[in-house]
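In the design runs reported in the main text, the only information available to the sequence generator was the tokenized backbone. The following block is the verbatim input for one such run; it is reproduced so that readers can re-run the procedure and compare outputs position by position.
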């Protein structure tokens, strides 16, 4: 599994209330009514992406995007606060944001890091917003493989390809040169909300929902 490493200091463990709610949501049967929060989010056409990005998150988010698209062509809001995670899961959400049909408005809050930043860039530039205290983190993928030297070599080559692909997406979506992005992402590259606007990650910093 290849990953863009989560931001430093991230603790993926959920607290008891979060774990309980997660289990309850995952255990809902088709004939059970939605919980009030889920119903409100559905009516608001809003998707929440919080925490580490993995295949379960990708499945849930893609399912919601497809459901909202089937329900109508109105705008969809995605609110993201993530330290990053599994690259291919981030790829899936990034691509689905554009594939699903309706306009997706992306709203960053807290931190939007690594694979989370890749997901954030799935929205068109004019539809990328963040709250005032949001921080962004861009950096290169991290691989973890053991075994035969030939397997390690293959993994290293794939990481290099992945790094180039992601850097080109960042350059395309921000308007920065590819060379600058390569330089910036060689180490952890933190960007605050206002600087993210200058860099081209974000269209506008917003403080109220009416501004989106």
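Verbatim output:
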């Amino acid at each position: 599994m290849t990953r863009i490493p989560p931001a430093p200091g991230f603790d993926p463990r959920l607290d008891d209330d979060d774990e309980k709610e997660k289990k309850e949501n995952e255990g809902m049967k088709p004939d059970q009514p939605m919980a009030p929060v889920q119903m409100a989010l559905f009516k608001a056409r809003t998707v929440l992406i919080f925490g580490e990005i993995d295949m379960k998150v990708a499945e849930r988010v893609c399912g919601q995007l497809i459901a909202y698209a089937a329900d109508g062509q109105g705008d969809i809001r995605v609110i993201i606060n993530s330290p990053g995670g599994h690259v291919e899961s981030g790829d899936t959400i990034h691509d689905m944001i554009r594939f699903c049909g309706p306009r997706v408005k992306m709203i960053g809050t807290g931190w939007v890091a690594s694979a989370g930043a890749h997901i954030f860039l799935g929205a068109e530039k004019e539809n990328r917003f963040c709250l005032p205290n949001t921080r962004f983190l861009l950096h290169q993928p991290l691989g973890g493989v053991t075994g035969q030297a030939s397997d390690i070599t293959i993994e290293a080559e794939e990481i290099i390809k992945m790094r180039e692909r992601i850097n080109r997406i960042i350059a395309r979506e921000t308007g920065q040169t590819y060379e600058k992005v390569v330089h910036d992402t060689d180490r952890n590259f933190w960007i605050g909300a206002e600087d993210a606007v200058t860099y081209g990650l974000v269209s506008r910093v917003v403080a109220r929902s009416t501004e989106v």
